Amino acid sequence: MPKLFTFIFAFILLSIPARAEKINLTADEKVEWHQNEQKMVAVGNAVATKKDLTVKADKMTGFYKSVKGEKSSITSVHAAGNVRAKTPTATAFGDTLDYDLVKEEMVLIGKPARIKTATETISARDKITYYPKEQKAIARGDVVADNKENKIHSDIMIAYFEKNAQGQMEMKRVEIFDHAKIVTQNAVAYADRGLYLPGAAKAYLYDNVKITQDGSELYGDKAETDLNTGISKLVSKTKGKRVSGVFKEKSSAEKSKK
Question: What is the Cα–Cα distance from 114 to 124, expressed in whole angstroms?
């Protein structure tokens, strides 16, 4: 049985400089302390825990800064290989995770990087950046938000989190930018940008909106999609401009199937 190595170190959160918090770092193979390079390396099922955050990876490196007459403080953490970061309400998966404590920024990269909550999964080809202080995540590159029944696609999504009545963090709104697309069981909607409200199961699309269904197409300025029913409502926000469409007439064969 591999021996379990444990090393405990403390870092100062820059947003709360008077308060020190401890990270507990464990590994199956080894934990090394490189004093000259001012870093600590955990290898083999490395696990770092802090309050309501647990990060697991094949290898984890913590970089710290020493100031004469003061306690050393961790400035950044790099996790690599089968990365999984877990909070009470979400789990993130990727190949690497970089946590910059100075910038208060976590960058997750994978093939793809994923964040999974109780109701949906957001994945990104390029990266997902999370800002703990702002409770915000930005996903970039072929981004998909999937709630099992519907999928929302775009190049960039910005998700905002808030505490619910039980004091738990949950995703409240997702802003959608560039090549927005919503795929439901009934139709596919396209637009330049949009807004997704997970709690209300609603999605709104704006500018150059097109909805396709059974070969027919509708065009407008704004669309509202109920993700529970899959029904989309299309409107025009410009006075005097009408909603337009191209409708496909069902063939005799299609009609006879009903």
Answer: 7
Instruction: Give me the phi and psi of 253, to 5 degrees please.
Output: -65, -40
Output DSSP code: residue 253: H
Tally of CB atoms within 10 A around 50: 15
* Cα→Cα distances 170→85, 135, 212, Å: 16, 10, 32
Which contiguous run of DSSP H or E holds residue 98?
Answer: strand 90-100
> Mind listing the pLDDT tens digit for each residue in 51-106?
778 999 999 998 888 766 666 677 889 999 999 999 888 899 999 999 998 888 99
Residue 29 main-chain phi, psi, to 5 deg = -95, -60
Please name the amino acid found at residue 10.
Answer: A
Domains of the chain: 1-81 (no CATH), 112-243 (2.60.450.10)
Pairwise CA distance, residues 112 & 115, whole Å: 10
pTM metric for this prediction = 0.78
pLDDT band at 117 (very low <50, low <70, confident <90, very high): confident
- d(CA 209, CA 195) in angstroms, rounded, equals 13
Which pair of tokens denotes residue 199?
A: 């709690």
Reading the block at residue 157, the tokens are 């999504």
Closest C-alpha to 213, from 233, 193, 194, 198: 233
